[in-house]
Structure to design on (701 residues):
C-alpha cells in the first residue's frame, strides 16, 4: 500500500492496519492507502472478510486537521468511507483508544464495529467550527437515533464504549489486544455468515420517535446557548437531512453544509486555537530530554481564596498538599472553605461524595514552616506585597529540602526580586493561577532570569497532570494577561465617561465574543481589587491614567460590586442578576462634567474597537519585548483565562484576520485623539508596513 497502511491476510481474513503516529489522523496518503487496501481485498480471491484496525495508542482521531484550508486532494474522506460501506465483502472496524470525527465516520462506513472497553467515540468537529463531513451526520442517527446523534454532534463530546454499545453505535466490546479481537470477530463473521450490513441502509432508529420535535428543541437550544456560533445550527440542519432525505441526498446536503463551515472564519479561528494550545507546550531551549523532578508532595503558603483553590487543584490530581496558615483560626477558615467548595461540587453533581472524601483526605493543614521541609514544590499564595513575599521566601529557603521548587503565585510583582530573597533563584518560578484556581484551566508559568530548564520542564509536565493549559511568560508588570487587561479595562471605563452605559458596553463585548462584559466582570471580582493598583499606576504612569474616574468614585461610595449589592449594576439580596443601578448615572454624569467630556452616543463597533484594539496594541508590545515567544501564546492566555471566544481565535489572531494595517490605522486615530496611552506598538507599525502578521513574527534569537 504505502508506508502508513499495511495489508496482509490470515487465511480468509484481510487485515488493513493504519499506522500514522501519534493519533492515526487521516491525511491524503492515509486515505489513498486505505482505498488501495480495500481494492486489494476486493480483488483478493482468498479473502472473504476485512478487518480495519490501527496500530499505536489509538484508532483514528479524525481527518488531518493540518489539511483544512489547503486545496483538497483526492481521494476525499467521504469517498473512502462510501467505498468501505459499498464493499462487497463484510468489514469490521476494531476501535481502541479513540475514534473521533473522520475516525468514527470510517468505522460507521464499516459493516460492524467492536471497541475496547476503555475506548471512546465521538464527533468533535463542532469544536473546530465544522460538522462531520464524511457521512457522520447521516449514519450516526441511523444507528443511535436522532436525539443521541444531535447531542453528540452539537456538543462534540465523546462517549465511552459502554454508552456507544447501548446506543447501538458499537456491536461488541472487547478486552486485550485489538488485533486478536479483530481476528476473533472476523472468524465469527465467517463461521456465522455475518454478511454485509450497510449503516446507510438502516432506518429503524429514524422511524421510532418524533424526530421533528427533537430537531426543533435542539435548534432552539443552539440559538439560546450558542449565539454567534457558525457551525452548531448547521450541525442540526445536517442531521435533519438524515430524517428528510434518502442517504445519497443527505450526504450531499451534509457536504454542502460542511463546505460552508470549512470556508468560515470561525473554522480558521478554532483550528488556530487547537494548534495554539498544543504549541504553547513547546519551549525552544527546553529539549524533550530535559530531566524533570518528581512532584509527590506539595506545600501551599496562604489559605485565602487563591491558596485554597490551588490546593484543591493538586488534591484533585491525587497529589497531597500541606496548606500553611499563620494561626489556627485562619487555618480552620481555609480548610472549611476547601470543604465547602467540594461540597458545592457534590451538590451540583460534578463530584461524587466518595471522590470528595478522597480529595479532602489528601489536604492537611499546618502552622509551622518546618512541615514543608519534605515538599517537592511549595507555592506561595499570600498577600500581594513584596515585603510579605520576602518573609515567605526567606523562610522557605531555610526549611525546604535542596531541589524543592519554590513558586510564587504573584500576579504582578517582579519574580526576579522574589527569587533574590533566596539563595537558590534557579529553583524559583512563578505559577500564576487564575481564580477560581481549581476551575480555571490557564496557568501563566513565569520564567525568571535564573529559573533552571529543569524547573521549567517540571512545572510544564506538572501542569498536564493538573489538567491546566500552561503558557510560559517572562517577567513584567502584570505578566501577559493582566498587563493587557489593564488597557482593556481602562478603555471600558473611559467609554462610560464618554457616554456609554455599562449595559451597552457589556452587551457589545459579549456579542463580540467575550463570555462576560467588563463591567459585570468587575462587579463579580470586586471593584476594590484594582483600586490600589490604579493608585500605584497613577503615581508611576500619570500620562496613562490621569484622573480618578468612575471606578474610584464607585469605590469611594462603597459600591464595590456584587459583594455590596451595588457596583456598576444593582443586585437584589442573594441574587447575581444585574439590574440597572440608579445611583450610577448621576455619578457618571458628574465624572464626565469634572473631566470636561461631552457625553455622546457611541456605537457598538466603536466600543469593541476601543477595548479590543487596546488589548492588541499591548499584546504587540509584549510580543516584541519577548515576554512570550509567539503571538499564539497570547491567544491561549485570552481563550483560557479571560473568556475570549475560541471562535475568535484570540486577540492576536483576530488582529491578523482583520489585517494589521486596518488595526494600526484605527489605533493611530485613537492615539491622536486620546494621547500617550494609545502610542502604537512599534512591532505593529513594522508588521503593518510589511503586510505581515503577528503569527509569522519570530523574535531575533
Ligand atoms: C474531521 O475529522 C473532519 C471529518 O468529519 C470530515 C472530513 C472531510 N489532525 O492533542 P495531543 C496532533 S475533523 C492532525 O497533544 P492527546 C496534535 O496536533 C477532526 N493532527 O494528544 C499533536 O501534535 P504535536 C476531528 C492531530 O493525547 C499530536 O497529534 N478530530 C490531530 O492529548 C498529539 O495530540 C478531532 O477534532 C488531527 N486530527 O489528545 C480530534 N489530532 O505532537 C482532535 C491530534 O505535533 N484531536 N493531532 O503537537 C484531539 O482531540 C486530541 O489530539 C486527541 C489526543 C484526543 C486525539
Amino acid at each position: 500500500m504505502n508506508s502508513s497502511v499495511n495489508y496482509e491476510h490470515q487465511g480468509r481474513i484481510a487485515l488493513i492496519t493504519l499506522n500514522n503516529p501519534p493519533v492515526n489522523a487521516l491525511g491524503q496518503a492515509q486515505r489513498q492507502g486505505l482505498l488501495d487496501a480495500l481494492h486489494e481485498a476486493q480483488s483478493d480471491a482468498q479473502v472473504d472478510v476485512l478487518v480495519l484496525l490501527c496500530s499505536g495508542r489509538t484508532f483514528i482521531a479524525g481527518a488531518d486537521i493540518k489539511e483544512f484550508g489547503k486545496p483538497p486532494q483526492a481521494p476525499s474522506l467521504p469517498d473512502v468511507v462510501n467505498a468501505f460501506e459499498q464493499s462487497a465483502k463484510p468489514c469490521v472496524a476494531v476501535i481502541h483508544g479513540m475514534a473521533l470525527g473522520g475516525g468514527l465516520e470510517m468505522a460507521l462506513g464499516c459493516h460492524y464495529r467492536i471497541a475496547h472497553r476503555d475506548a471512546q467515540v465521538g464527533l468533535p468537529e463542532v469544536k473546530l467550527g465544522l460538522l462531520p463531513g464524511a457521512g457522520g451526520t447521516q449514519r450516526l442517527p441511523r444507528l443511535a437515533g436522532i436525539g443521541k446523534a444531535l447531542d453528540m454532534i452539537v456538543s462534540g463530546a465523546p462517549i465511552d464504549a459502554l454508552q456507544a454499545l447501548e446506543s447501538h453505535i458499537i456491536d461488541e466490546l472487547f478486552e486485550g489486544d485489538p488485533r486478536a479481537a479483530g481476528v476473533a470477530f472476523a472468524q465469527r463473521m465467517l463461521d456465522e455468515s455475518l454478511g454485509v450490513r450497510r449503516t446507510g441502509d438502516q432506518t429503524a432508529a429514524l422511524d421510532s420517535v418524533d424526530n421533528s420535535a427533537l430537531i426543533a428543541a435542539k435548534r432552539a437550544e443552539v440559538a439560546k446557548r450558542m449565539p454567534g456560533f457558525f457551525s452548531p445550527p448547521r450541525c442540526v440542519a445536517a442531521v435533519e437531512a438524515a430524517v428528510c432525505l434518502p442517504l445519497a441526498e443527505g450526504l450531499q446536503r451534509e457536504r454542502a453544509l460542511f463546505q460552508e463551515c470549512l470556508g468560515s472564519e470561525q473554522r480558521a479561528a478554532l483550528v488556530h486555537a487547537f494548534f495554539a494550545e498544543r504549541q504553547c507546550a513547546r519551549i525552544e531551549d527546553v529539549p524533550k530530554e530535559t530531566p524533570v523532578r518528581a512532584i509527590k508532595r506539595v506545600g501551599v503558603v496562604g489559605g485565602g481564596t487563591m491558596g485554597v483553590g490551588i490546593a484543591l487543584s493538586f488534591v484533585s490530581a491525587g497529589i497531597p498538599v500541606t496548606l500553611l496558615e499563620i494561626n489556627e483560626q485562619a487555618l480552620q477558615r481555609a480548610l472549611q472553605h476547601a470543604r465547602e467548595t467540594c461540597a458545592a461540587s457534590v451538590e451540583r453533581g460534578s463530584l461524587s461524595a466518595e471522590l470528595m472524601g478522597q480529595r479532602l483526605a489528601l489536604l492537611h493543614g499546618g502552622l509551622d514552616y518546618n512541615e514543608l521541609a519534605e515538599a517537592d514544590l511549595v507555592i506561595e499564595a499570600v498577600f500581594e506585597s513584596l515585603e510579605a513575599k520576602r518573609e515567605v521566601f526567606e523562610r522557605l529557603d531555610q526549611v525546604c529540602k535542596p531541589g524543592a521548587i519554590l513558586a510564587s503565585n504573584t500576579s504582578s510583582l517582579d519574580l526576579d526580586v522574589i527569587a533574590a530573597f533566596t539563595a537558590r533563584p534557579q529553583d524559583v518560578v512563578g505559577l500564576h493561577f487564575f481564580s477560581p484556581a481549581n476551575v480555571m484551566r490557564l496557568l501563566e508559568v513565569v520564567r525568571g532570569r535564573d529559573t533552571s530548564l529543569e524547573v521549567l520542564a517540571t512545572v510544564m509536565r506538572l501542569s498536564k497532570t493538573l489538567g491546566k493549559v500552561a503558557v510560559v511568560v517572562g517577567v513584567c508588570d502584570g505578566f501577559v494577561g493582566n498587563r493587557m487587561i489593564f488597557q482593556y479595562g481602562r478603555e471600558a471605563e473611559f467609554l462610560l465617561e464618554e457616554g456609554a452605559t455599562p449595559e451597552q458596553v457589556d452587551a457589545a463585548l459579549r456579542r463580540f465574543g467575550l463570555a462576560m462584559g467588563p463591567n459585570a466582570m468587575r462587579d463579580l471580582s470586586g471593584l476594590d481589587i484594582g483600586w490600589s493598583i490604579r493608585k500605584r499606576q497613577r503615581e508611576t504612569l500619570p500620562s496613562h491614567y490621569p484622573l480618578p474616574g468612575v471606578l474610584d468614585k464607585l469605590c469611594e461610595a462603597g459600591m464595590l460590586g456584587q459583594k455590596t449589592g451595588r457596583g456598576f449594576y444593582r443586585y437584589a439580596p442573594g441574587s447575581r442578576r444585574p439590574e440597572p443601578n440608579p445611583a450610577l448615572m448621576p455619578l457618571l454624569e458628574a465624572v464626565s462634567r469634572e473631566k470636561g467630556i461631552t457625553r455622546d452616543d457611541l456605537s457598538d463597533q466603536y466600543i469593541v474597537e476601543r477595548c479590543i484594539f487596546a488589548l492588541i496594541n499591548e499584546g504587540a508590545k509584549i510580543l516584541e519585548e519577548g515576554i512570550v515567544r509567539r503571538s499564539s501564546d497570547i491567544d491561549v492566555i485570552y481563550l483560557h483565562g479571560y473568556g475570549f471566544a475560541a471562535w475568535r481565535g484570540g486577540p492576536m489572531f483576530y488582529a491578523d484576520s482583520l489585517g494589521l494595517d486596518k488595526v494600526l490605522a484605527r489605533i493611530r486615530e485613537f492615539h491622536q485623539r486620546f494621547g500617550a496611552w494609545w502610542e502604537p506598538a512599534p512591532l505593529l507599525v513594522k508588521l503593518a508596513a510589511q503586510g505581515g502578521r503577528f503569527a509569522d513574527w519570530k523574535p531575533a534569537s
About this structure: The longest strand covers residues 5-10. The chain has a mean pLDDT of 94.
